[in-house]
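Allow me, if you will, to draw on your knowledge of protein folds for a short while. I have a record of one protein: its chain in single-letter code and its fold written as discrete structure tokens. Kindly check, if you would, that the fold set down in the tokens agrees with what the sequence suggests. Thank you for your consideration; the sequence and its tokens are set out here:
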Amino acid sequence: MTDLNLSCVFVGTTINANYLKSVLHENGIECIVRDFLQESSAAGFAAASSDDAAKVFVDEKDFETSEEIVQRLFDEEK
């Protein structure tokens, strides 16, 4: 990812974010996972909720495909 035009495609638990990361990589989509729980504990405090502790960012050109993958993975669970 050389371009910094990133869009957030997922907000949720760290486990789900890392699962999504592996599925995106299998589909040829690079992404960045930002883990707020890990960041906050490294800073000396803990974030309040683990339900929205991580965000997954993808390049804007991959956003639509990534959104479809997110819907397929997580909307089926409901």
Notes: The chain has a mean pLDDT of 86.
